[in-house]
Structure formats: structure tokens, C-alpha cells
Design goal:
Elements (H helix, E strand, L loop, with lengths): L16 H7 L6 H5 L4 E5 L6 H16 L2 E5 L14 E3 L2 H15 L9 E5 L2 H7 L4 H14 L5 E7 L19 E4 L3 H8 L1
Parallel strand pairs: 1-5, 1-6, 2-3, 2-4, 4-5
Helix pairs in contact: 4-5, 4-6
């Protein structure tokens, strides 16, 4: 048996700006992309930048749609509170009531006149707080993410878990109704579980 092998040096290529642009968008494209978003889910471990990311996204949506914002932040008195918005809800119980009320409003026949963006921080923890009601809360969230934009509502759901198993009766495809951002190691979890 004879094997012929030919070795050669790979020619060095120059990296062009076009190559780099295909990898990511620069800051000046951020508003152009985000202003079209209505339903967003942001996940990441502790101190991975979930709240600042959500704040930046919310600011663009508010600016582009003249939106009204409602924030539910069960950790409003935390040292890691980076929100510029006043929290309407300041406990997991407030968040539970907020999800219920938003689902009810989404199901009304009359669309909201002004675009309203509701933000639920720590949504994973909120669901975990209510043993026995988890499927009910998940049902509210499913209603909101599937029908909210039809009645002029937007939502940002923020939590630490990249998986959907904590959302009762959810399939991963239900999350396709959202723009999903997984920060840090959560990106690996999301890819693995997809």
C-alpha cells in the first residue's frame, strides 16, 4: 500500500470588515433591530447582565413605539437593581397578580390604544414560589406570549433558567413566540436542550 501526501502552508488571508460584520452587528444597528421586538425572554446566571440588557431593550421599544412600561420586580430593593423604571409590582405575589391581569387584558376584544410593555423580572422564581399554581401561571404566560401583540401588548420575561421544563405544559416550540436571549453559559444550556 502506498500513500502520497502533499503538505502545504495554508495561505494567510486578511480579515475584512465584511467578514467581521457578518459575525455581529455594531451598536448603531441595535435600535434598528430591537425596535421591532414585542416579546422577549432573557436568561442568564446571576450577575450576567440580564437587567441592564432588558433595560436597554425596553428603552428602544419605548422610544420607537411611545410605549407605556409596567415593571414587576420582586427584588426591587436589591443592591443589583439597575432599573430606571419605578416598579409597579415589588413582590412575587404582585408578579403573579400582574401575569393574571395581563392575560385577562390580552383576552379582551378591544386592543390597547397605546403599546404597553410589561416587564417581569425573576419570572422563574415567581413561578417556583407558587407550588400547585405553576401550571396556572404558565398558562397566563402562554396566553401573553401567543396573543399579546394582537392587542398591542409587549412583554419581557427575565429569569435565570434557560430550560422550559419549569413552565408547565410548555414545549420548547412555545418559546419560538419570543425573541430569546441567553447570556453567558445559559447559551450552552439552550443549545444543548434544543
Amino acid at each position: 500500500m502506498t500513500l502520497k501526501a502533499q503538505f502545504y502552508k495554508k495561505p494567510k488571508t486578511e480579515t475584512s470588515e465584511g467578514d467581521i460584520a457578518r459575525l455581529w452587528r455594531s451598536l448603531d444597528h441595535f435600535e434598528e433591530i430591537v425596535k421591532k421586538w414585542e416579546r422577549v425572554r432573557i436568561t442568564g446566571g446571576s450577575k450576567k447582565g440580564k437587567s441592564p440588557t432588558a433595560q436597554n431593550i425596553a428603552n428602544v421599544i419605548i422610544k420607537s413605539r411611545n410605549a407605556q412600561v409596567v415593571l414587576f420586580n420582586p427584588q426591587h430593593n436589591s443592591v443589583k437593581n439597575f432599573w430606571d423604571f419605578e416598579a409597579t409590582g415589588q413582590s412575587h405575589s404582585d408578579s403573579e397578580k400582574g401575569l393574571k391581569e395581563l392575560a385577562r387584558r390580552v383576552n379582551e376584544d378591544a386592543p390597547n390604544k397605546q403599546f404597553e410593555l410589561q416587564i417581569f423580572d425573576e419570572v422563574d422564581s415567581t413561578i417556583a414560589q407558587f407550588k400547585g399554581k405553576q401550571s396556572v401561571l404558565s398558562g397566563y404566560i402562554k396566553t401573553i406570549i401567543k396573543q399579546g401583540s394582537q392587542n398591542n401588548f409587549g412583554v419581557i420575561l427575565i429569569g435565570q433558567n434557560a430550560n422550559v421544563k419549569m413552565f408547565s405544559d410548555f414545549d420548547r416550540s412555545d418559546m419560538n413566540n419570543l425573541v430569546v436571549l441567553h447570556l453567558g453559559a445559559n447559551a450552552f444550556d439552550a443549545i444543548q436542550n434544543t
